[in-house]
């Protein structure tokens, strides 16, 4: 049975980002896990929003998500300007840890998909060490390309056998979002999470920063210092243009105010679980 009802969203350059906090996100996850539908969760930051401006397929993927959480403070600031005063930053790494940590999710089974060679297994071992009760039923490190027909059949068969409640996908944006939207209908699972750099955070390959740095919207700078060769072009291309486009959106909003109570229908976000 598909869900009815709706949830408040912030409108960020054509993407509906859930106006949510950590407790709200965990509640939504629990609802899906307890129900008969399935879906995927996107983690949206400036990078993802800007990728969607250049990729109409990604824009459609965001629109069909079960939940699109605000990974960066700029998205939260935009949401608060639209009247969502209680909207908070909910990152993929943080949400992942909360789901593993909390007793209400202790019965949930997990599958880890992505990362460089050996990272999925290392992440599994570190999570089990930190949370001995977790049930991680499998891992898979995909090639740096689309799965071949034989690899796809094997992966789908593996998931059909294991039936994990959650599949954690860490293959970077926009690949992971497009992957989830494409594969969810084929897979015997309830939720897929595209958590990007969470694998590297939780295996220690990326150092986290202080909370005040995150709250100031400067985590991107902390990341840039750690990996300038890979990230400088992303931030140079995305950040100034994001500020410009958001400025234009705010001007339009002032001319034609968006109602803060506009909601994104759940019926557009969910896929029924096949019996």
Explain the layout of strands and helices.
Layout: E1 6-12, E2 15-18, H1 22-34, E3 37-44, H2 46-54, H3 56-63, E4 67-70, H4 73-81, H5 92-101, E5 109-114, H6 119-130, E6 135-140, H7 149-162, E7 166-170, H8 175-183, E8 191-194, H9 198-202, H10 211-215, H11 219-226, H12 228-255, E9 263-265, E10 271-272
Parallel strand pairs: 3-4, 3-8, 5-6, 5-7, 7-8
Antiparallel strand pairs: 1-2, 1-9, 3-10
Short description:
The chain is of the alpha/beta class. It is built from twelve helices and ten strands.
Structural notes for this entry:
The protein has 275 residues and is of the alpha/beta class. The protein is 47% helix and 18% strand. It has twelve helices and ten strands. The strands form two sheets. Strands 3, 4, 5, 6, 7, 8 and 10 form a seven-stranded mixed beta sheet that branches. It is globular, with a radius of gyration of 18 Å.
């Amino acid at each position: 049975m598909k869900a009815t009802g709706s949830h408040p969203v912030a409108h960020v350059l054509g993407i509906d980002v859930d106006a949510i906090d950590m407790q709200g996100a965990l509640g939504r996850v629990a609802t899906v896990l307890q129900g008969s539908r399935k879906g995927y969760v996107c983690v949206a930051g400036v990078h993802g929003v800007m990728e969607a401006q250049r990729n109409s397929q990604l824009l459609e993927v965001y629109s069909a998500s079960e939940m699109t959480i605000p990974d960066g403070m700029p998205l939260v600031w935009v949401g608060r300007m639209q009247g969502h005063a209680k909207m908070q930053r909910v990152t993929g790494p943080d949400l992942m840890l909360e789901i593993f940590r909390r007793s209400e999710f202790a019965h949930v089974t997990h599958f880890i998909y992505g990362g460089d060679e050996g990272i999925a297994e290392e992440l599994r071992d570190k999570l089990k060490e930190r949370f001995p009760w977790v049930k991680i039923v499998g891992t898979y490190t995909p090639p740096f390309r689309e799965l071949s027909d034989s690899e796809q059949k094997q992966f789908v068969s593996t998931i059909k056998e294991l039936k994990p409640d959650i599949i954690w996908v860490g293959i970077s944006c926009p690949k992971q979002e497009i992957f989830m939207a494409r594969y969810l209908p084929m897979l015997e699972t309830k939720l897929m999470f595209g958590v990007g750099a969470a694998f590297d955070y939780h295996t220690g390959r990326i150092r986290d920063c202080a909370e005040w740095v995150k709250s100031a919207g400067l985590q991107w700078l902390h990341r840039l210092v750690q990996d300038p060769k890979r990230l400088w072009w992303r931030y140079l291309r995305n950040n100034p243009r994001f500020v410009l486009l958001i400025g234009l959106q705010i001007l339009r909003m002032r001319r034609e105010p968006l109602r803060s109570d506009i909601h994104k229908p759940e019926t557009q976000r969910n896929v029924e679980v096949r019996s």
